[in-house]
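In this section we walk through a basic example: taking a raw amino acid sequence and producing a predicted 3D structure, encoded as discrete structure tokens. The instruction is simple. Fold the sequence below.
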Amino acid sequence: MSNRILTATIFLAGVLIVLSAAAVVSGASNTGDSTKPEGPHVPKSGGLIRVTGYSDNDGPTSKVVVTGVIGDFGKAVRIASQGSSNAQYNELDLQLTRGSFGLDIAGVESELLAAISGHFPTNAATCSGEVSVSGRAAIDSGSGTGAYKGLTGSLTLTITINEVESPPHCPMTDTSPFLAQTVFISGSGKVSLPS
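The resulting token sequence is shown next.
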């Protein structure tokens, strides 16, 4: 009888070891391999998000990462929203893996254009410079899609441009070609989803 108990105990221990190993392997294979983020996990009371984006040119599209109560990534596209009277960018559309939402950037974009106009590059001797502006960017009402449908809130955004232009005469015009450029977007703010 004791041999049967010993055999059953060894068998059960073996089964438990195999099941434990399978669970560890299964959990390990899911870690870091997913291309879908977990978020959003916006609590009813709202929460803080941080946005960072970057590009190597002043075109309309940047890569973007959103962290905090929303964990997602994708691209940020500067667009002229419907009804705008000119081609000036006034919306930053965050096109993420779980949906999208727009930020009203008309104010910060106007500040950026004013800072660049006639003042760039900031070091004429080296034909290089940096311009940085900050401003409020509210989430455009009704712009949320997918997981971000109904998202509200606002962020404080900073846009920074670093650029090296071609010497010896710079800038020739505001649209002079540059040798190298980086454009960074960063900001944070509180957002919430409808209850």
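Looking at the output, two observations stand out. The first helix runs from residue 2 to 30. The radius of gyration is 25 Å. In the next section we compare this with other chains.
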